[in-house]
Amino acid sequence: MPLHTRPTSNRVRKSLFSILKDELEDKEVLDLYAGSGSLGIEALSVGAKSCHFVDIKKRCIEIIRQNLTNLNLLHKGILHCKSSLKAIKDFYSEEKKFDIIFADPPYYKDEAFKLLQTLDCYDILSPSGLFILQVFLKDKIFWGVKKYKLILKKRFGQDLILFFTHV
Questions:
Q1: What is the C-alpha separation between 77 and 17, in angstroms, rounded?
Q2: Which pLDDT score is estimated for 3?
Q3: Residue 10 has pLDDT above 80, yes or no
Q4: Pick from 72, 136, 129: which is nearest to 97 by CA?
Q5: Environment class of 167 (CB within 10 Å of its CB; exposed 0-12, middle 13-18, buried 19+)
Q6: Which of 3, 73, 97, 104 is the most exposed place for a label (fewest CB within 10 A)?
Q7: Percentage, residues of the chain above pLDDT 90
Q8: What residue segments make up the domains of the chain, in order of their start?
Q9: What value, to the nearest 5°, has the Cα angle with vertex 81 and ends 79 and 68?
Q10: End-to-end CA gap in the chain
Q11: pLDDT tens digits, residue range 56-94?
Q12: Mind listing the pLDDT tens digit for each residue in 105-121?
């Protein structure tokens, strides 16, 4: 596990994938702030077509590559070593859309706030897609988004999992 990486807990991941059930089959997935890649790898293991993993730390990308290799999933993973906000803008300019977007930004750095603002300007979610954001209960969130609506909120201790779709 890379230093200073906060992986999604097993409890949260199990609940999240229980909610998603069959929603991942043959879907294009994006794992922002990927860390170890656990969310994207889980999505691939339950039938996602592909997953783009984005993390700014080279060490995280190396670990994701190794995890994908160990699980024989490297052919379904696309790795990007860059900031998640830059990746969103790049995908937008490439007209790339995703069916499922996972984001687990660092806590306390207003990253969730910046992420929602960026996605509102650079929409990379497919028309029927689902955006899933994990945040700290006390994180500042940008609720002024125009393109997305909150459809489900789940609390796990100090973590909130927010599910968004298009308005």
A1: 19
A2: 45
A3: no
A4: 129
A5: exposed
A6: 3
A7: 69
A8: 10-166
A9: 30
A10: 37
A11: 999 999 999 999 999 999 999 999 999 999 999 999 999
A12: 987 678 888 999 999 99
Tell me the CA distances in angstroms from 21 to 18, 42, 108, 114, 167, one per residue in order.
5, 12, 31, 29, 23
Return the SS3 of 74: helix
Classify domain 10-166 at the CATH superfamily level: Vaccinia Virus protein VP39 (3.40.50.150)
> How far, in Å, CA of 121 to CA of 14, rounded?
31
Instruction: Report the C-alpha gap between 122 and 119 in whole angstroms.
Output: 5
Instruction: Count the Cβ atoms, other than its own, within 10 Å of residue 124.
Output: 21
Contacts of 131 (CB under 8 A, 6+ apart): 100, 101, 103, 119, 125, 148, 163, 164, 165
Give the β-pairing of 28-32 and 125-136: unpaired
pTM value is 0.91
**Total residue count of the chain as it appears in this document:** 167
Tell me the CA distances in angstroms from 68 to 45, 128, 136, 155, one per residue in order: 10, 27, 28, 29
